[in-house]
Design goal:
The protein is built from seven helices and eleven strands. By secondary structure, the protein is α/β, with parallel strands linked by helices. It has one domain (2-256): Stationary-phase Survival Protein Sure Homolog, Chain: A. It has a nine-stranded mixed β-sheet with strand order 3-4-2-1-5-6-7-11-8, sandwiched between helices. The chain has a two-stranded antiparallel ribbon with strand order 9-10.
Length: 260
């Protein structure tokens, strides 16, 4: 298939690079449009107040690659409208692999990774977002130092990337258009070739206290607050699925937002 690939962690993310390698190994023809810098928690925002700069780059992926100084939504929208040749019609949009999970109503709607896939769904295309649960130590290493994950994490990451490529190969061919649906897939630690995948729904959580108290200059900084899970016992949520050591597959059908 012809796939447009994006993420929200930027082009230097090893998690993103492993997904690209796995998709290429599966035989897909890739087109990459990715933020030049990390765009986590930007949600589905688009850059309105300034121009978005774009540059073709060669990072050794063996496919057309562009970096944009915008959000994941910018990347997908601009790529489909202006970067791809008119004769190129992609078969779907793939976003990830994100550093850290994208689970629960408290985080899915804020996720730049999910938003990159959602922009594909807004174009009528099959779309999937992939995220990898990580330890606090690995998260800090990747976010603050841009380091390579340790050997165990790298084994899990490669297995998760292979599972992502397999998932796309199974779900995208023949998928109907204009479903306004995103497959949101979260991989546990560890993840293996035989790790079970389970259908889930987003956990219902409260996320109070995400900002620090005011500093001397009156500013507040984003911090990790308490996550309070108020989900009913059934059905299985994405958070509980990861706690069980299974792969979470949530179908986000945006047509079901709202009530009659």
């Amino acid at each position: 298939m012809k796939l447009l690939v994006t993420n929200d962690d930027g082009i230097n993310s090893i998690f993103f690079q492993e997904l690209v390698h796995a998709l290429r190994a599966a035989g897909h023809e890739l087109y990459i449009a990715v933020p030049a810098t990390e765009q986590s928690w930007t949600g589905a925002s688009k850059t309105r107040s300034r121009p978005v700069k774009c540059a073709a780059v060669d990072r050794g992926f063996g496919c057309p690659t562009w970096m944009l100084d915008g959000t994941p939504s910018d990347c997908v929208n601009i790529a489909i409208a202006h970067l791809l040749e008119p004769t190129v019609k992609v078969d779907g949009v793939v976003s990830g692999i994100n550093v850290g999970f994208n689970c629960s109503l408290g985080f899915v709607l804020a996720s730049g990774t999910v938003a990159g896939a959602w922009e594909g769904a807004l174009h009528g295309l099959p779309a999937a977002a992939f995220s990898q649960d990580v330890s606090e130590e690995v998260y800090a290493l990747m976010k603050e130092q841009g380091g390579t994950p340790d050997a165990d994490m790298l084994v899990t990451l490669k297995a998760s990337a292979a599972r992502a490529a397999r998932f796309v190969g199974e779900k995208f061919p023949g998928a109907p258009r204009n479903t306004f649906t995103v497959h949101n897939v979260n991989f546990p630690i560890p993840c293996r070739a035989d790790t079970e995948i389970k259908p889930t729904v987003p956990a219902q959580v409260h996320v109070p206290g995400l900002f620090s108290p005011a500093a001397d200059d009156g500013s507040h900084r984003l911090v990790w607050g308490n996550i309070i899970d108020v989900s009913p016992p059934e059905p299985l949520t994405d958070v509980k699925c990861l706690e069980q050591g299974c792969i979470s597959h949530t179908i986000l059908d945006y047509r079901k937002l709202g009530h009659a």
